[in-house]
Amino acid sequence: MGTRPAQANQVDDGAGDQAAAHHANEAEGVGAGEPGGATARAEAPHGGPTQDTTATEAICRATGLTKQVNGPEGVLTILDRVDLAVAPGEAVAIVGASGSGKSTLLGLLAGLDRASAGSIRLCGEALEPLDEDGRAALRAGRVGFVFQNFQLIPTLTARENVLLPLELTATVQAGEARRIADAALERVGLDERRGHYPRQLSGGEQQRVAIARAFAPSPAVLFADEPTGNLDEATGGRIIDLLFALREDAGAALILVTHDPALAQRCDRRLGMSGGRLEALG
Ligand SMILES: Nc1ncnc2c1ncn2[C@@H]1O[C@H](COP(=O)(O)OP(=O)(O)O)[C@@H](O)[C@H]1O
Ligand SMILES: [Mg+2]
């Protein structure tokens, strides 16, 4: 990350950022955005022709995105004027060293955290004018999340965890929500476990519930932050196959943070985070 002095409007003390992100995740289990900027040349999803996403409406677009926090040694610049545009249905991998700001970027793009400067459009809407409730309403049914540590609600069963984001989606009726949740659990091979609590499930099973939760509302964008980071290789491989299969079904854009080069290669495009900046990789 960079250490340049603050010149921006707003510097957080950082307190509460993670809590806010966790709260938002528990409430919805999902998140998305819209593209644009220096890295705006994007391939169409699934190997289609190269297209300029500035000419189409990006599903997630960040422009000049900067995040600064107050640290013990003064202002720390975690993200430094990041530009990003992700086309509908596109899969983008973000790689970079631990502490380089990848999770911070995802949290901003999904509207879980506030930038110090710059702008974000998600699913066609600017995030800046929206308060927390407005951002939650924007995410509901349109934005999904999968995290390294699953982040299921421990006091809810698998089915209840998957139902949560559906219940926040105004257009889905109660009976319909249950049908969709059960279909999503069946899709990830856990229909027999829908009454189980997270503690009664293995790590891989918990992540499958989290994937069912993320995809049940048919989101336009899925954010995944090192989704296999807590799983063994074989289990992680199965989780990734599932993630890509469901993404294909949903036609959702995927913004994936990963340390795994093989996984990054499965995406349409790779970006590297370093020194607070985001750059196109080969
Ligand atoms: N709210 C905060 N306050 C202070 N420092 C933070 C805050 N959030 C993140 N950081 C720091 O910013 C850097 C980037 O963090 P993070 O986005 O989690 O990186 P990554 O996901 O790439 O490992 C780290 O050094 C982290 O300690
Ligand atoms: Mg991280």
CATH architecture: 3-Layer(aba) Sandwich
CATH class value: Alpha Beta
Arithmetic mean pLDDT? 83
Which small-molecule species are bound to the chains here?
Answer: adenosine-5'-diphosphate, magnesium ion
Cα radius of gyration in angstroms: 18 Å
CATH fold call: Rossmann fold
Alpha carbon gap, first and last residue: 21 Å
Structural class determined from secondary elements:
alpha/beta
Q: How many strands appear in the DSSP assignment?
A: 12
How many independent structural domains? 1
Strand content: 15-25%
Strand neighbour order, sheet with most strands: 8-9-10-5-11-12
Q: Helix segment count?
A: 8
Order of helices and strands: HEEEEEHEEHEHHHEHEHEE
Helix percent reads: 25-40%
* Shape designation: globular
Find the CATH superfamily.
P-loop containing nucleotide triphosphate hydrolases
Poorly predicted regions: 1-10, 13-53
Largest sheet: 6 strands, mixed
Domain ABC transporter: 60-282
Protein name: ABC transporter
Region (Disordered): 1-53
Biased composition (Low complexity): 1-22
Word description of this protein:
By secondary structure, the chain is of the alpha/beta class. It has a single domain, classed as Rossmann fold (3-Layer(aba) Sandwich). The protein is 31% helix and 24% strand. The chain contains eight helices and twelve strands. It has helices spanning 17-28, 102-109, 132-139, 158-167, 174-187, 203-215, 233-250, 261-265; strands at 41-43, 50-52, 60-71, 74-86, 91-95, 117-122, 125-126, 143-147, 221-225, 253-257, 269-274, 277-280. It has a six-stranded mixed sheet. The two termini are 21 Å apart. The model is unreliable at 1-10 and 13-53 (pLDDT under 50). Residues 1, 14, 17, 69, 71, 78, 96, 98-104 line the site of adenosine-5'-diphosphate. Magnesium ion binds at residues 102-103, 225.
